[in-house]
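LOG
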Amino acid sequence: MKRVQNVISESRLTLPVVATYGMGTWAAAGLFHEQWWIQLACFAISTYLMIELNNSNALIRIYSRMVSCSFIILSSAMCFLFCSISQAIAELCVIASYIMLFRCYQDRQAAGRTFYAFICLGLASMFYVHTLFYVPAVWLLMAFYLQSFGWRSFLASVIGLITPYWFASVYFIYLEDFSLPVQHFLQLTDLQFPYDYTQITLQQMVTFVFVIITATTGTIHYLRTSFNDKIRIRMLYNCFIVMNILSTSYLIAQPQHYDFLMRMIVINTSPLIAHFIALTHTRVTNISFCIITISALLLTAYNLWISSSAFL
């Protein structure tokens, strides 16, 4: 017997309805008043790339758009992050890098795709330099899970990572002014020990707790049922889990980077919670789905009420 969660997760109407909900959230948050058109375009492209990430890798073994729907709903719940152009572009680039990296699975000769994946990471770091902290982790994922790490792919990754900076350097050489690049990389030293957690707002804390509960639910479910998926899919989901743990740990240690790290957590949580919603059928999981959905809607309303310019 199909339950509510299964009917919704397998329906072809779910994505259009959720996309409409997302657009409504953007409008309520101040899209027209604040002119967030570039940010909205990045969000739309990111959503499309999440669809492509799911389709090209068959992350869910049945027809379901829950990966992209989960991304839209979780992102909409964090509507107070809509205003940042640089982080929106960095988020888009990270998703694009995932698509290219996953296509390199078990191919140590895939220098071209690795190059393009790290160009995306390099571009992301140009807009948010702390993305560079993820590079060693990506190399480890390539070595242990994607099994695509070799000397060719390593060199391709290094060249790809510095390529955006190489093109940018031409501009700064022309200007004969390197103060901006220096300031850009000096941001990597923006580390605080210990951090004053009293600067974290209630809004940020509530949102963090909800997303982490969602991520934990999806992770536990996947670890318990991963034997049902092919080995390749298991490796990809292991990548999501590792990146989620890394991002959460980084956020707890350095919460001044809350905004970008929450975007990273949402990217990696979306496939995990989508897998849980689409591929479970019990009464308990159906109740969990309803609770998660209602909580997401309430959190969105709360964040809109707290931070939206529409309510000022």
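LOG (cont.) second protein
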Amino acid sequence: MKTEKLFKRHVLQAVTCYKELLDEHCANGDPAHKLSLQMGVSRNVLQQGFRKLFGESIREYKLRIRMERGRTLFDLGKDLKDVAHELNYTKTRAFTTAFKRFYGHTPTKVYNVLG
């Protein structure tokens, strides 16, 4: 059965709208529950629709685009503190830990950046 048949049109619109917010704001948009209320769908339905349409959970997607954005910022010459701050991590260490879990190594090992 096609994805469009599994979810109603307004659910698909909510999922697409949420993904666009995430893409525009590098995963720092409104939480899923706020958007789901605005769009008239439950948070669980929004999350299920997101996984069906894009093949990963909202959390996985947000983490992936944040890490990809981090790599881009390092490539542009930004330092570790600036990258962590721009990606809305409260502590540099939290960003380093997330980066290591995602890529298997710390950003300092690959980019030789200072913290």
